[in-house]
Amino acid sequence: TVSELRTFVTETRSELLTKTQAQDELIAKNTANIQRNLELIQGLQSNQNTGYLEIKELLNTEIEARKAEDIRIEAKVDKNTRDLT
């Protein structure tokens, strides 16, 4: 009957609206999670870049210190060699 058909349409419409709202909520939640994950990834990339630059600076400092020490030792060896001759 027409009444049953209206009831069916109304129930189906309500069910579809409920499902649509649930999907919209999931989409909003997923969007927020994606944004959060993006921020975390960008933070990790920033930390990685900072760590790399710090390590590079420390290595350059160590290289310079070793070069200076090599020069000092070489001068000392040269002096000792001259003193022995």
UniProtKB/TrEMBL annotation:
Protein name as it appears in the record: Uncharacterized protein
Native organism: Xanthomonas citri pv. citri
Lineage, highest ranks first: Bacteria, Pseudomonadati, Pseudomonadota, Gammaproteobacteria, Lysobacterales
